Every structure is written in structure tokens, then in C-alpha cells.
Task: structure prediction
Amino acid sequence: MSPDLAPVISAGTRWLLTAFPPAPGAFSQALAEAQARQAVSLAAALRHPTPLDAQLLHLLGPGGSAGLDWLTGADHGGDADADWRTWVDETVVSWAACLLAAPALAVDAHHLVDRGQVGEVTRLTHPGDHEHDAAPLLRHPDLLEPVAALHRAPLLDLLANENAALG
Result:
């Protein structure tokens, strides 16, 4: 995966953890962050699969979090450190929400991406009780639905078309 995607992955992860906070405690926060980062990394690799895609993203910009913030009712008027929000890619976050809500979908997505690109995604694809306990909001399909529904159809089309091409 292109290192050019690092700001998008970082911002997407931060947005998900801000919108769907983990359970209290350092262990829960670390597990929730690992899950969110794995989901955003996999979604970013699917959305921007080539170095040229990543360079175009930097040239054109990812769009920011305004639409997602409005959708979830987030008010960040007092956020003094809001520059990171400009790096949020709405489609990547929506796809990550889809992957978090449906581990089987994450498994299918991971099969399409070179495993070396996104690294280990076991916390995403095979979550256990610890993962669910650490991130109950981040793993709740009903809570994720408004964000996941934004761009689910293109993700499902991509997975169906790629799986058909492989099969």
C-alpha cells in the first residue's frame, strides 16, 4: 500500500473512534483503534489500489469529514485541532464501517487485497469477545448503518466484480 495513504488512514481511524468511542480503559482503546485502523487500511487499499490513485488523492484531496459529521450529528465547532478532518475520505470511512459491521465482508475484501499491503487484519475479520467488548459502538451494525449505507453499493459491486473475475 502506498505510504501516501497514511494521512487518510490516520484521519479515517480517528474519525471512526471519535464518532463511535471505545469502552473505557487503555486496553479497550488500543483494541478499538486496532480494529478501526485495520478496517480503514483495508478500505483505503480497495478504494485507492495503485500508487497513481494515492497520488491523485493527494492532488484532489479526500473531501473531508463535513458530510459524515453532519450525518452523525457531530458538532466540532470547538475542535481546535480540526485540520486532520480534511484528510477524511468519506468513501473509505463508509467502506470501513461496512467491514466493521460484517466480518464476512471483511474476509472477502481481504482476499482481494494483497495481504502485504494492509498487514494483519485478524481483529477485523475474526473479532472475538475482547474486540466486541472493547468497541461495542464501533462493531454495532445498527449504529454503523447510516455511515455504511452511504457507499455500500459500490463496495459490494467491487467485491462481486472482482470475485467474478477471479472465479
Residues 81 and 102 are 32 Å apart (CA to CA).
